[in-house]
Amino acid sequence: MTATITQSPANVLVHEPDVQTGFEIRDRLTVDGVSAVLVADSGEIYNEFVSGNYALCVISLAGAGGAEAGFCAARRLKQIRNSVFIIFTGEKPSPEVISRAFLLEDTDDFLRIPFHTEELSCRIQAILRRKQQDTGVEKRPAVYKIGKYTFDPLRQELTIANKMQKLTTKESELLRILCINGTRLTARKDALETIWKGDTYFNARSMDVYVTKLRKMLSKDSTIHLINVHAEGYRFVKR
């Protein structure tokens, strides 16, 4: 009689530019009963993430593009699924990089390179234990406060002074990404790839139209402004 081993779907995505280190991490996680997929290039993180159902992502800040590339990748993942856990790894990170990781990029953990694969595995398992039992249903998105406005992305409703306006799906998706980033920059490229599925001229013009619509919807509160950062993207400012 032949035994059939069925491997559970991977729930951890590991970005590690050093191939040998990546194999060691995956082998350690496998021994500990955690299924993982490896990517070596930070540019591969997004495509792999959207193709799976990952609960946690380990992102190295030591690859091509450095910390900025790693932080950008993490923001894109959060825009797709804000509940994903993020662990950054970095070689000789400056205090500024560590502060940014925790205070601005909303990381769940940070490991300095070099590290023992056993330690990384333990930290991953500890974070996954905190995750609620998966019911197959994504947690209800947060309700955001934008100045005097309340935005409910699940119901696609924007409310001010008890007056509610229904949003289209794209309007809601774009406003949700802007709310997640708040006063931080929402990169045009990230929003186009996430919502319009491509950074093309026509998609960019379409997004500009939606930004104009959102500005008009938010115009009843003069203390908040959605500003354009030339050739980079958009962010909220409060006055």
Structure description:
With 239 residues, this protein is an alpha/beta fold. It folds into 2 domains: 12-130, 3-Layer(aba) Sandwich (Rossmann fold); 144-238, Arc Repressor Mutant, subunit A. The chain has 8 helices and 12 strands. The chain has helices at residues 19-31, 45-51, 66-80, 95-103, 117-130, 169-181, 188-196, 201-217; strands spanning 12-15, 36-39, 56-60, 85-91, 109-113, 144-146, 149-152, 157-160, 163-166, 186-187, 224-229, 233-238. Strands 2-1-3-4-5 form a 5-stranded parallel β-sheet, sandwiched between helices. It has a 4-stranded antiparallel β-sheet with strand order 6-7-8-9, covered by helices on one side. Strand 1, helix 1 (19-31) and strand 2 form a beta-alpha-beta unit. Helix 6 packs across helix 8. It is elongated and about 55 Å long.
List the topology elements.
Elements: E1 12-15, H1 19-31, E2 36-39, H2 45-51, E3 56-60, H3 66-80, E4 85-91, H4 95-103, E5 109-113, H5 117-130, E6 144-146, E7 149-152, E8 157-160, E9 163-166, H6 169-181, E10 186-187, H7 188-196, H8 201-217, E11 224-229, E12 233-238
Parallel strand pairs: 1-2, 1-3, 3-4, 4-5
Antiparallel strand pairs: 6-7, 7-8, 8-9, 10-12, 11-12
Helix pairs in contact: 1-5, 2-3, 6-8
